[in-house]
Amino acid sequence: xxxxxxxxxxxxxxxxxxxxxxxxxxxxxxxxxxxxxxxxxxxxxxxxxxxxxxxxxxxxxxxxxxxxxxxxxxxxxxxxxxxxxxxxxxxxxxxxxxxxxxxxxxxxxxxxxxxxxxxxxxxxxxxxxxxxxxxxxxxxxxxxxxxxxxxxxxxxxxxxxxxxxxxxxxxxxxxxxxxxxxxxxxxxxxxxxxxxxxxxxxxxxxxxxxxxxxxxxxxxxxxxxxxxxxxxxxxxxxxxxxxxxxxxxxxxxxxxxxxxxxxxxxxxxxxxxxx
Length: 275
Ligand SMILES: NC(=O)c1ccc[n+]([C@@H]2O[C@H](COP(=O)([O-])OP(=O)(O)OC[C@H]3O[C@@H](n4cnc5c(N)ncnc54)[C@H](OP(=O)(O)O)[C@@H]3O)[C@@H](O)[C@H]2O)c1
Known about the structure:
12 helices, binds NADP nicotinamide-adenine-dinucleotide phosphate, alpha/beta, ProC C-terminal domain-like fold, 8-stranded mixed β-sheet
């Protein structure tokens, strides 16, 4: 079967990363189109990946099986309303990667009752190590779910959620989560430097430790709690550090931080929804 024709609306960082992953994974470049207002951006994408580029959103989607909306959330209303006439009478799969923009708003702005998948990728997708949560409307077929998965897998792993409200929690975990780990890395680096390690060595120790822990957690059959217990001997160094975290209320602090992010995501969803 011939691969679906995918058109990305917006050829910025996220589109470039997904296109790179798709082409590297064997998706034919001639079945991928991208629109972007900036000539340099179009030129870069065309020469690097061999994809078709254009500045005309409406014309670009005319023969698309899948339309990936990859513009900034604040531009979604205007871009969708402009695209609406080109979708009249057609039912391509719409995939939105715009953070925080709800399914209902996308459908309303596009005047569209066809299949839509709303996605929440995260920044590590830019280095093919991301994770994306997907939420389908009830018009999305099984084949279209597979297609949406193939596109977002170009940036890393994928999960499906079956309640759109969970997208706010996803935002508080994987969406904002990379910054939580960066913050912990910063604090560990400072603690190391304060105790005499050169900054470069401190940074490498911290980053490799974070990477190693994540890789062990991914590859092991044990959950993170068990992995933690396995490396914590009674009265040892790790126990001394973890006791300090507990005394400082780490679990409660993390819970409140995730809650604050999820709450903010819901507020932004209201604002972006244009209602
Ligand atoms: N980057 C991330 O880590 C990340 C994570 C999660 C979700 N996302 C979502 O992914 C989407 C894209 O993010 P990004 O980081 O790739 O942003 P970006 O680099 O700014 O890419 C957006 C692109 O869309 C172009 N554009 C602007 N108006 C357009 C129009 N009318 N038609 C077609 N293209 C247009 C922009 O061109 P100009 O630059 O010339 O305006 C830009 O090249 C956003 O909705 C964001 O919420 C991104």
